[in-house]
């Protein structure tokens, strides 16, 4: 699947919750109403900002949408809520996220899609009293153009001259305006950044606690929260038991001077507890929170999801279960007990952090005067020294990246073995599929739609042992649809797959032992010279990255140029990252590691991580090309180790033929052709024992060596 840009800063920031800190409010919430209990009135927490200055917003032009029915009424209804008693504001921001900052979310949290009509996985809608704009990245520009109604302006994020959300708001709103957000849907970092930028015109950021405004419009049509049971992830695939993982995490707490930590990322909870869920399509996670203390572990989840088997599993791991909606009360209890609470501000929603800070304030307000003065003095000393004393009196928030993210990203031996085995079975399914498609379209001239082709691929995958689900919605794009980077074919509007156009297929599977993600682009007829040149240059970038050798802990952005260099030589590029992390029988997009031109992700690559290698090229309204393999970061023996550094390279996980007839071999060096031939030799060796008959013959034909000196 096309690479996302992982945003999770690895920074340490200490914030005292003493009387001199600006701490927010608190509240309780219920999952069955989007993360909070229903109320008749709105409660606001105003975050004051000061400052001056303006940014001139230059919005991107937007092509008018083919879809507009019903959206206008939703906007009007939303704007009416701006003036409800107790709620006076001038703008409301609707992000894509759920309370856990997930990329892929349950249907009940798809508020941005409901209000705007845009269904891509990334984007933020902003509605003022007279304007409605949507920001999304380059993967979704074409999709957003097609889906947004005439009352919406598309903001192409990252394009020169296009303002950020907060810059746009400071420009279009009158000074002193109020901007509302749902604090359960914004990370603390995101809220702080928004508050800072809004301060340029003395705007106020408002936390709307007692109900999401979009839910007020959605009403009974809003899907119910998921209640599917969770399951135990077998130790033979997990590699480490829960007790060992929790023990390592507690060691991290001790080293950081913390006494407890809140884990809110769903895949981190699933990995830590060796559990898998079914709350989010294609992602084996369940909605839950986790608090780990030095002497206890508490899982906050809907009890209906806990089966007898899971109950025994958790009991054996000394994990207590409490209702999902009781999380904030537990956070307040920790403050009252003087906890040193580790909070990852990049992914923990601001409602949780607000609750802890507010409880900290109350703690200090209730101290005797002498103890209060001592607490203030100790905390000031702490902030000045940037060190932590676990014996210090009173609660403290330790803002630091979650240690679970890196622990999960570096796969153990069992996880790597499972990923290897899952990829081989997946490769066999893809060989079945491609042999079938070439026969039906290339030879029999059968008319097949993009949806029918994707459904057939699912049929082949479903026959493989251990298959559970697809790892994301299959991207089945023929011709111009392939240029829509995250295209989703729909039965009523999809194109046909024929021998006249390029066909891009990006797909993956969830297996009991691993997660796959692979993209191939083919032509079932005769490709044009333009298509062949573009395809060849994309492959050259793929090869260059695959062959990279680099020092341990090199950030992914350092390698990104390798995948783009061949395209850059003729003035071409692509609007997405080159590689994303992948979980082991978990989320297909995993952080914090990644390979992208965005240099803010400083996470170093380490042995055992898994990333995708997927350069591409997209000619708008014409065709799309992407070639994607998953690879394991591994140790490499080098004749020298400058500075004592270990060096790393990549081990391939994906073994699916790359269509040779799409290559312009005159552009390729002998070394690049040798790479292709060696890769196809590996594909044949590993996959041929898993297929039979016509598929075996197809695999043989599509893995034959390309002549090194050919000038086709």
TrEMBL record:
The keyword Transmembrane does not apply. GO terms for molecular function: metal ion binding; metalloaminopeptidase activity. GO terms for cellular component: cytoplasm. Residues 418-634 form the Peptidase M24 domain. Its cofactor is Mn(2+). Keywords: Hydrolase, Manganese, Metal-binding. Residues 647-706 form the Peptidase M24 C-terminal domain. InterPro entries: Creatin/AminoP/Spt16_N (IPR029149), Creatinase/aminopeptidase-like (IPR036005), Creatinase_N (IPR000587), Pept_M24 (IPR000994), Pept_M24B (IPR033740), Peptidase_M24_C (IPR032416), X-Pro_aminopeptidase_P (IPR050422). Signal peptide: none annotated. SUPFAM superfamilies: Creatinase/aminopeptidase, Creatinase/prolidase N-terminal domain. Gene3D superfamilies: Creatinase/methionine aminopeptidase superfamily (3.90.230.10), Creatinase/prolidase N-terminal domain (3.40.350.10). It holds the Pfam family Creatinase_N_2. This is Metallopeptidase M24 family protein. Belongs to the peptidase M24B family. Residues 76-200 form the Creatinase N-terminal domain.
